Amino acid sequence: MDTSIAAPGQTVRLTIDDIAFGGEGVGRLNDFVVFVPFVALGETVEAELIEVKKRFARARLLKILQPSPDRVAPPCRYFGECGGCQYQHLAYPVQLRIKHKQACDLLQRIGGIDPARVDPVIPCPEPYGYRNRIMIRSQWDKYKQGLNIGFLRADNRLVVDIEECKIAEPALNEQIHRVRQQPPPKGGIKVVLRAVAEGWEVPRDSFFQTNFHLLPKLVETVGACLRDSGSRFLIDAYCGVGFFSIELGGMVDEFAGVEVDTASIQAARRNARTHGRANGQFLAGRTEDLLPQMLGRFEACCTTVILDPPRTGCPAGMLQALRQAGPRQVLYVSCHPATLARDLNVLRAGNVFEVTKIVPLDMFPQTQHTECVADLRLTAPPTGGA
Fold first, then answer.
1. Per the structure, how many domains does the chain have?
2. Exposed (0-12), middle (13-18) or buried (19+): which is 268, by Cβ within 10 Å?
3. 360 is in which domain, residue-wise?
4. 188-197, pLDDT tens digit by residue?
5. Taking the C-alpha atoms of 82, 85, 87 and 92 in order, what is their torsion angle to the nearest 10 degrees?
6. Burial class (CB in 10 A: 0-12, 13-18, 19+), 311
């Protein structure tokens, strides 16, 4: 298509033929792709172009001309304005199908992984009221001469003033109410609200899984892969406060958790005592630095390494250390399928590791995000300096 005839402000009619990773619908003007948020597959919509690039454009939804039977009424009054959720307008089973297709497409396109190795998405028993940690922001609104307290908008960096969050735990909505009653002194302040993880010590800035309701299924999924490998030792990289080590430590002879954050390691040691887990240790430091000595002590051929890194994925040094050490199994837990696929490419290069299966879990209903557990097994000897 000649993009000179497409310009910001132009109104277009589109039929949505796909939902892209990130949640936007995909429509086409001839062969020119236009991304539109808050739509459903098969819908015909009217949209206004707001950004036109050489290869694609983005548009703002104006009107649903032919709605999809998959469309439902969003329960949140801020949906479409607040940027926290992308899928409240879709029935929950449809969200799961979309996330499965997106994970398969990304893993195949970036990592060359057969979609047949990707299991169906495990649903969350509570699609709303599940999030146990949120961050709200304050921003001065010069028009109303007061603070907006809430989340970033879907279309810019301004803050939407909110009184509740439908995907947050009820305890967090009570905390939102208290923050609004005693607001921050000025704009630009971020406030982290967190529900207590019962039985776990979690320092203020330490990571813990944000969905208590699906956490048992996540543990069950990782545990089933660990059991199937027959490993006798476990290394929990990026262990945080020791969640996986402590939950799964009873399945192995010995374990070690590694975390660069000292406060998290100290909490992990106390959590281990609380849970009566005495067959392991927690070490402060970078996994890529400590991995060789741990695998030397544990015997790589009998060891599983769990990776649960931030959304940005694993550093290159960590992946190379794994390739060189050659543990029996790597279980990679990721909340970003694209970075997961990228890192799996490194681990699989030269047929060092093979992906046996990937299990997606819907830890983040109503949003674009999906958690995945990838089970990799060693297929070739360690690669030395490769």
1. 3
2. buried
3. 97-124+208-378
4. 999 999 999 9
5. -130
6. exposed
